[in-house]
Amino acid sequence: MPIGSSDIPQADNIEDVVLTVESVAQGARTYQEIATFINKVGRQGRYYRKAAEILGLIHPSGKNNSLLTRRGRAFIRSNEQVRRRILIESVLGSQIIRRLVPYLELHPEGLTRENVVRFLSQLTPHIGDSMLPRRVSTIISWLTSLNIIAEIDGRYVLGESTRDIRILEFTNNDELIIPIMGELGEYNIVQQRAAQARSSIVIQQNQVAMERANNAHKSLVDLVAARIRNAGAIPRSNQLIDLATRYNSQSFIFEMKSTTQKNIRDQIRKGMSQLYEYRYLQNNPNAILVLVIDNPLPRENVWMRDYLNGDRQIYFLWDGKGSLFSTTEVKTELNFLF
Question: How far apart are CA 228 and CA 129, in angstroms?
């Protein structure tokens, strides 16, 4: 799934993007008014307005008229610390950055500017060769300013700010969230599979939304996401997958289930099915599957632990009042969570 030119920013200074949001908050509506507020020429006013739109902080309302989004209003009301968090989340939420960050994970040795240009060129085939390096300059400027990436000996690596990402959220279920190579073909396969399963995905998405409203489910997600962050990896999710991550060159997909004595077996079966489907939809056949429930298994269901771990190759964990538990073998395999 290629990324269109309009979805890639060309506004180098992230601080002026912030000023653009502030200008709209203070009554600027047209790109000319924005340009005047941020001390730019009219053409740059359009670029910075579009950049703020890409970040989801403002939105167009009619012809040449801009308004704050809900996120933009929250940004304006917040103190500097919260503003920075919202800004980082907004940058990471843009489609082009959501693809670049996993690609950086695939290359812990770092990427040169030329590597970044080459990577983005295959994702944005409709952008001219002369224009793309300028867009890359914007992306690198934003990411280094926010310490999402750092430059070391001429190579860009993931920076300290990525450790503060609660969960990197992907809004589209047809987007690849744990790439193996980071090539456009991978993204196209995931998009095709999601299109073929669209009716099933809609039903599943509604069920997942109801599950995520459960406090026990949310606690499980937060618990595992915190362990992933502490290990130096990035937790991510979409509207179906509760959590996924890459750690030591290995992909992991997690499904969380809240349970009762009566439904625990059904919930485990449902979780197994979901994990297999998600791995297929993500076109990542070697991803390790992990099922997490919020209570230990009752005595009559203890056999399911060996069934999952041994027969189904699904690692099984359970919560014990804020701590994760599993078998010794699983703890060894998933040592970054313990």
Answer: 38
- Give the type of residue at 144: T
Q: What is the pLDDT of residues 270-300, one digit of tens each?
A: 999 999 999 999 999 999 999 999 999 999 9
75 closest CA partner among 148, 33, 24, 8? 24
What span, in angstroms and rounded, lies between the C-alpha atoms of 210 and 217?
A: 10
R_g (Cα) of the chain, nearest Å: 22
Question: Tokens 């993931």 identify what position?
Answer: 158
Give all domains of the chain, ordered by start, each with its CATH number. Answer: 5-86 (1.10.10.10), 92-164 (1.10.10.10), 184-337 (3.40.1350)
What is the CB neighbour count within 10 angstroms for residue 111?
20
Give the count of alpha carbons within 13 A of 182, CB side only.
19
pLDDT tens by residue, 66-110: 999 999 999 999 999 999 999 999 999 898 999 999 999 999 999
Q: Name the residue among 234, 97, 240 with its Cα closest to residue 178.
A: 234
As a whole number of angstroms, the distance between CA 91 and CA 18 comes to 12
Specify the pTM: 0.89
Pairing of strands 314-319, 324-325: antiparallel
Q: What is the Cα–Cα distance from 243 to 288, expressed in whole angstroms?
A: 12
Spatial distance between the Cα atoms of 302 and 237, rounded to a whole number of angstroms: 29
**Coil, helix or strand at residue 6:** helix
* 3 state SS of 96: helix
- Positions in the chain whose pLDDT score sits under 50: none
Q: Where are the alpha helices (DSSP H) in the chain?
A: 14-25, 31-37, 42-54, 70-77, 80-93, 95-106, 113-123, 132-145, 184-196, 198-212, 215-230, 264-281, 303-306, 328-333
